[in-house]
């Protein structure tokens, strides 16, 4: 046996200590929650503006409570409801107050349908009497209290119903609902995914009327996915999915008179899309937003529900497209607040009740990124913006005249506010690339901090034993634009050495990856790669958001052209750095990012040696109407725009190493995209690697799935780059 000298033992021990202080982050740790941040449980401000409620679930007993807290002290002042006091409900997962906060709607047995839609069993709980009433024996969708809290409307089997709580009587409002044909009161798949809402009905102020949308999807083509499960035979899952250029649902607006049960159709100029309906403060006035198929002409109508008369309230047009938001706010006299990009940047506007422009409230070469609301008593509009830099977010208030602006939370990084109902307080969530979320309570009128609530110092201390490198933010001049960028280098970075470059991006319209905010799961994974000797970089190219309308919309009708040019040019420029090995450059992305990484290794085959694409679009002809046509118009109108940027049209360009991953249960970006890419590569006689995850949707998660996926990608990177 060889003798080991004492000096060698001491040296080995020292190296173990050094390694222990710079452990690489592992995939298992990331997805087993080792770096999970502490947060505030979702709170809901009460009508009094001084208190809020929080849902708590005891992990051991599964007892669920809705507890009441005081804003000023942050102390618990009572329990609104506890499942331990309700024999019928062992636990519940969500709750909704009636407008007068005398009743609660409790959600149980929730079953997901698509991204936002859910089925569930619901109960009404009377806070004073502690009485519990089951709304329906079967699972329903989107229940909503009437304004007086005496009834609950809901959708079941594509029909609209009204349940009267006291009598326990149910009235079926519509009768023509049929799966994959007619839908009343909730949206179809493409509206849910791209216009981001499910409940397609609204009570008016006194509960006398309900406005609802009806979707006739009879002529929408069906898409079928095999669900493999654990049985002997796979089962087909069939749903309506309108791909670019195909038929959409025929959407119509209807008004229900609750007392009589009469339903009247409302003609809003044969609207192609109806992405938003919202009652005004006057109980008989309804606002309806419509879009043409190209989504570049938005019209907001005022509907007199008593007379069924329609007039134009506002119109927005854009050479590219008009964004749909939830920022519309009606004031007491039905004048309204609206956000628009019409001056080249997203800003807040005030309009009169007749639709006349009264004032542009915010102005400047920066973007309003969130509209929080308007305190009419104090004449204060609250919003978040990029005034302190496009990668940062600050919180401000301003008068409706556009003056007396106050910075409320603007420390460099990302500030996000949650306001009390009466705008007395807000809880600010702050994070940056160096600081995990910190929660503080502030006065809304001036931003003065009242007290600290919670931080994540324990996480910061834990990370000190890991090899974590800072994000270095900068800009890079590419194709005539200064693009936001970050780079992460190994902790023991040596400028005299050569490092492989691994790029990450998403690049979709209006998106942002380069932001001064705390790490997500992908960031932790990148840190693990950096610890093993890679340099990770991310560049937000043309088409991404928060740098003005023109920067964002330059990619119109050419998705995948300018974005790919920017990633290739950025990789080439970064490869000129003395410490980058230009022979080892990789790129990866998910969804739109997978579309990008696939295009990059093909069109940039002299630049990228490796690419990973997860759940990529490989032809925009395979994706849905609303998203795709917003940016590309239809394939019939823009065939070259579709063909020139569809990677399966040029598989012969593949020279490097390519890994393609998809879930077979992806209802969003169908596995068809990858299957067509695979076949194209096979017929071009190109070798590549691929991975299929059975029955996994666009998120590809569940059990050990994420651990397996990210280890697979890490192993591919280490082998090929």
UniProtKB/TrEMBL annotation:
Domain of life: Bacteria
Signal peptide segment: none
Keyword Plastid attributed: no
Keywords: Glycoprotein, Hydrolase, Protease
Name of the featured protein: S9 family peptidase
Entry-linked PANTHER family: DIPEPTIDYL PEPTIDASE 9, PROTEASE FAMILY S9B,C DIPEPTIDYL-PEPTIDASE IV-RELATED
A GO term for molecular function: serine-type endopeptidase activity
Presence of keyword Hydrolase: yes
PROSITE patterns, alphabetized: PRO_ENDOPEP_SER (PS00708)
Domain Peptidase S9 prolyl oligopeptidase catalytic: 528-721
Pfam families tied to this protein: DPPIV_N, Peptidase_S9
Transmembrane residue ranges: none
BP term (GO), one: proteolysis
Domain Dipeptidylpeptidase IV N-terminal: residue ranges: 98-437
């Amino acid at each position: 046996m060889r003798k080991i000298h004492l000096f060698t033992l001491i040296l080995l021990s020292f190296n173990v200590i050094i390694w222990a202080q710079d452990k690489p982050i592992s995939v298992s740790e990331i997805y087993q929650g080792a770096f999970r941040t502490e947060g505030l449980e979702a709170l809901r401000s009460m009508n009094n503006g001084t208190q809020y409620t929080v849902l708590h679930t005891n992990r051991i007993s599964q007892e669920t409570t809705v507890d009441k807290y005081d804003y000023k002290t942050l102390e618990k002042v009572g329990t609104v409801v506890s499942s331990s006091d309700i024999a019928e409900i062992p636990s519940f997962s969500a709750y909704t107050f009636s407008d007068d906060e005398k009743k609660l709607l409790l959600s149980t047995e929730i079953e997901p349908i698509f991204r936002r839609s859910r089925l569930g069993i619901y109960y009404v709980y009377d806070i004073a009497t502690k009485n519990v009433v089951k709304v329906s024996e079967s699972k329903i969708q989107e229940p909503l209290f009437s304004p007086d809290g005496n009834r609950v409307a809901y959708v079941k089997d594509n029909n609209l119903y009204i349940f009267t709580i006291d009598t326990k009587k149910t009235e079926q409002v519509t009768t023509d609902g049929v799966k994959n044909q007619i839908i009343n009161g909730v949206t179809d798949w493409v509206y849910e995914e791209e216009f981001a809402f499910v409940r397609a009905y609204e009570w008016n102020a006194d509960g006398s009327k309900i406005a609802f949308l009806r979707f006739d999807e009879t002529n929408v083509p069906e898409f079928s996915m095999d669900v493999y499960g654990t049985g002997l035979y796979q089962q087909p899952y069939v749903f309506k999915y309108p791909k670019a250029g195909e038929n959409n649902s025929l959407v119509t607006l209807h008004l229900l008179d609750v007392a009589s049960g009469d339903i009247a159709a409302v003609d809003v100029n044969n609207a192609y899309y109806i992405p938003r309906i919202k009652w005004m403060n006057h109980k008989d006035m309804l606002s309806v937003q419509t879009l043409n198929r190209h989504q570049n002409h938005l019209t907001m109508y005022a509907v007199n529900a008593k007379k069924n008369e329609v007039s134009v309230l506002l119109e927005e047009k854009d050479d590219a497209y008009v964004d749909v938001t939830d920022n519309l706010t009606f004031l007491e006299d039905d004048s309204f607040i609206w956000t628009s990009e019409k001056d080249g940047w997203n800003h807040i506007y005030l309009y009169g009740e007749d639709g006349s422009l009264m004032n542009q409230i915010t102005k400047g070469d920066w973007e309003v990124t969130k509209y929080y609301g308007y305190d009419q008593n104090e004449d204060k509009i609250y919003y978040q913006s990029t005034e302190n830099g496009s990668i940062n977010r600050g919180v401000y208030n301003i008068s409706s005249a556009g003056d007396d602006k106050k910075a409320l939370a603007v420390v460099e990084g990302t500030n996000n506010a949650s306001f009390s109902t009466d705008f007395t307080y807000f809880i600010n969530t702050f994070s940056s690339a160096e600081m995990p979320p910190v929660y503080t309570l502030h006065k809304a009128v001036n931003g003065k901090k009242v007290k600290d609530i919670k931080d994540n110092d324990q996480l910061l201390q834990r990370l000190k034993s890991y090899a974590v490198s800072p994000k270095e933010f900068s800009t890079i001049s590419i194709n005539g634009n200064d693009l936001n960028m970050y780079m992460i280098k190994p902790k023991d970075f040596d400028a005299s050495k050569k490092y492989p470059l691994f790029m990450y991006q998403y690049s979709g319209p209006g998106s942002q990856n380069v932001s001064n905010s705390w790490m997500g799961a992908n960031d932790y994974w990148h840190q693990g790669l950096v610890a093993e000797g890679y340099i990770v970089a991310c560049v937000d190219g043309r088409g991404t958001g928060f740098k003005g309308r023109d920067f964002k919309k330059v990619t119109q009708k050419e998705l995948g052209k300018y974005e790919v040019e920017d990633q290739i040019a950025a990789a080439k420029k970064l490869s000129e750095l003395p410490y980058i090995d230009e022979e080892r450059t990789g790129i990866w992305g998910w969804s739109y990012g997978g579309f990008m990484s696939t295009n990059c290794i093909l069109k940039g085959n002299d630049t990228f040696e490796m690419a990973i694409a997860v759940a990529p679009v490989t032809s925009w002809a395979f994706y849905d109407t609303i998203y795709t046509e917003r940016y590309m118009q239809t394939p019939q109108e823009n065939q070259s725009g579709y063909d020139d940027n569809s990677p399966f049209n040029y598989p012969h360009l593949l020279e490097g190493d390519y890994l393609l991953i998809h879930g077979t249960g992806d209802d969003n970006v169908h596995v068809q995209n990858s299957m067509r890419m695979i076949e194209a590569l096979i017929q071009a006689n190109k070798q590549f690697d691929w991975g299929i995850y059975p029955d996994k949707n666009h998120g590809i998660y569940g059990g050990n799935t994420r651990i397996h996926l990210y280890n697979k990608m890490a192993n591919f990177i280490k082998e090929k780059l």
